[in-house]
Each structure stands twice: as C-alpha cells, then as structure tokens.
Design goal:
By secondary structure, this protein is α/β, with parallel strands linked by helices. The chain folds into two domains: 179 residues, Rossmann fold, CATH 3.40.50.150; 49 residues, no CATH class. Helices cover 26% and strands 32% of the residues. The protein binds S-adenosylmethionine. S-adenosylmethionine (SAM) binds next to strand 2.
Length: 245
Amino acid sequence: MDDPDGYFGERIAASYDESSADMFQEDAVDAAVDVLAELAGGGRALELGIGTGRIALPLARRGVPVHGIDLSRAMVARLRAKPGSDAIGVTIGDFATTRVDGTFAVAYLVFNTIMNLTTQDAQVACFRNVAAHLEPGGCFVIEVGVPDLRRLPPGQDVVPFHTSPTQWAFDVYDVATQAMSSNYVEVTDGRGDYTSIPFRYVWPAELDLMAQLAGLRRRERWDGWTRRAFTSESRQHISIWEKPS
Ligand SMILES: C[S@@+](CC[C@H](N)C(=O)[O-])C[C@H]1O[C@@H](n2cnc3c(N)ncnc32)[C@H](O)[C@@H]1O
C-alpha cells in the first residue's frame, strides 16, 4: 500500500458516508454515543481512527471534548467539511504508535478498526499506546466482530457476504496466520473493478490478553451498544477495559 492515507484514501473517503449508511443511522450512532458519553463522565475522549466523524461529531455535540487520530488526510478532510468539526482536534498518524497531548477518560476504536492493524505486534502496541493515554480509572472501548470461522467448512477459505449483478463482496481467511481480507468487485458496463483490504482478525480472549499486557483489566463485554449479554451466538462484541486507579 503506497498511499500515505492507507486503505482509506481519496476514492474510499469520497463515498465512505454513503457506503456505510447503515452505520450512520441515528439509532446505531446514538446507542454508541450514549455509552461513550457515560464513560467520559465529563472528561476527554480519544477516538482511534476517527474517520469522517460518524461518532466523534455527535459525541462532541453532547459536550464531550473529543480528539482523534487517523492516518487518512482524505477521511479527515470529510470530517473537517462538517459543521461542528472545529471543536475536535485531530492528529494525523498511526494510532498504534502516535502520541497526543494530555490524558483521556475514554479511548475508543469502533467499526472493526482494530483489525486494520494487520499484525499481532501492532495490535498489542495499540493497547499499550491507549493505556499510556488513559487517566487512572479511564476506559478503552473496542467494537469488533467475532471471527466468522464457523462459516468456513473444512477446505474452504472464502465467505461471500454480498452478491448482486453489480457487486460481489467476499472475505478470504488464512486460519494459520489470522490474516484475512475483504474483497469487492464492482461491475460497471460488464467490467469489474477489484479492491482488496487486508485485516488481521482477533479473538475476544486474545484482546483480553493484549489488555492485560498493557496493564488494563476487563470491565464489560456486550453483544452490542444496547448492552445485551455476549453469548456463544454473538457475532460482534463491545468490550471495555479499564486502567486501574
Ligand atoms: C472503518 S473506518 C472507521 C471510521 C470511524 N471510526 C467510523 O466509525 O465511522 C477506519 C478508519 O481508521 C483509519 N485507520 C485505519 N488504520 C489506521 C491506523 N493504523 N492508524 C490510524 N488510522 C487508521 C482509516 O483511515 C479510517 O478513517
């Protein structure tokens, strides 16, 4: 990947809000913002991978001071074009290693973005970086899918998740390395345009261990922002770890 904006360069940024429209629904956003505002409790919030401000802007409108980190100038330009963004500070950089001034009551990394770090070392570094930014009693919140390996019969490594005459989308898994990719083919006038985004899938228990390495301890694990219990059937989780006081 040569683009300094990573996989969220100009082309993805230009259509990000429309193509993620479900995630921008008021119900989905409000439920997340309720949890984050409560955890902030009058303190500051740090968003890793702030993107176009889907969560940061409504959180800032609730009166929470928000700072973001993102690699992509193209995504942050979309945030900057929205009303209210002048209340939000942004640092351009890799959220696994980039330091910003001050400490935070809550740090959060939503919409599967921990998986954008494609090595275990980088994911561990991210937890350590967050721990260094949290004030005592502060929390780190992650929203991420449970690896969908139950959909893979032996010998199969591809899971299609959208097929239509004009778009094919499928994930490819390497269970030996936990590497995966999401792949998209957009068909226009009979010609396909192919995009592939690499990820590293990560297990809930593995995240707990990363938290432990960073000196954090788990406080919650829910199936979603409405705080339903996490079960063996859950397809995603919201996990919260806290820095001991
Ligand atoms: C799926 S988007 C999520 C954006 C926003 N959090 C939301 O919920 O809509 C992922 C964002 O993380 C950023 N990102 C991915 N890997 C990153 C990294 N290693 N360091 C900083 N930003 C990163 C991308 O540029 C993109 O803006």
